[in-house]
Design brief:
The structure holds 2 protein chains of 2 kinds.
Chain A lengths: L4 E3 L2 E5 L4 E6 L5 E9 L6 E6 L5 E4 L2 E6 L4 E6 L8 E9 L2 E7 L3 E6 L1
Parallel strand pairs in A: 2-11
Antiparallel strand pairs in A: 1-3, 3-8, 4-5, 4-9, 6-7, 7-8, 9-10, 9-11
Chain B lengths: L3 E4 L2 E4 L4 E8 L5 E7 L6 E7 L2 E5 L6 E7 L2 E7 L7 E8 L12 E2 L3 E5 L1
Parallel strand pairs in B: 2-11
Antiparallel strand pairs in B: 1-3, 3-8, 4-5, 4-9, 5-6, 7-8, 9-10, 9-11
The chains are: A mainly beta, B mainly beta.
Chain lengths: ~110, ~120
Amino acid sequence: ILNVEQSPQSLHVQEGDSTNFTCSFPSSNFYALHWYRWETAKSPEALFVMTLNGDEKKKGRISATLNTKEGYSYLYIKGSQPEDSATYLCAFAMNTGFQKLVFGTGTRLLVSP
Amino acid sequence: ETGVTQTPRHLVMGMTNKKSLKCEQHLGHNAMYWYKQSAKKPLELMFVYNFKEQTENNSVPSRFSPECPNSSHLFLHLHTLQPEDSALYLCASSQDRGGDNSGNTIYFGEGSWLTVV
């Protein structure tokens, strides 16, 4: 059974704080690691799809790194804003079935003004 | 607006009812998915369709019956469900490039909240 772990489960920060979350996944049969942002009452929104060990991706104030050999990815948010409040999901795809994403339970972020 | 539209957004049904969830994607994608989000559980893949053909059934009970008449539309037919089937059902689509290492970004709809009473 594939296991994707995310930590912390929830996080409450003040506006302007920088923060980071962790996603742990199996280090074998790696194909891709996805990050999604899911705001309440909206659809999950793709942030990054990472496929290469050592990948670093950036989108505005959000960035992510990938280590496939040890099976982890970090998501960083610099200068958090209230609109960053959401649940951040990671999902692992194996090379034996790259469409079969296995999701973590997410990190719920609340940014207070 | 992700280009994936789901209806209805909310559905309440009895255990003996037959109902359907509908999904339409306007992205020209060739793969479509059903996912289930139960309380306190991760998003769980149910079915995958590629070019209208079902390529994955993740051990889903037969009371859930998917249908994909074309690459743009996906249905989930519901029959004799149980209260524990109450959940958020998400449809998604992607452009399957056959594993070209681009990662296969998946686009989700907003989901259909299902309550079985």
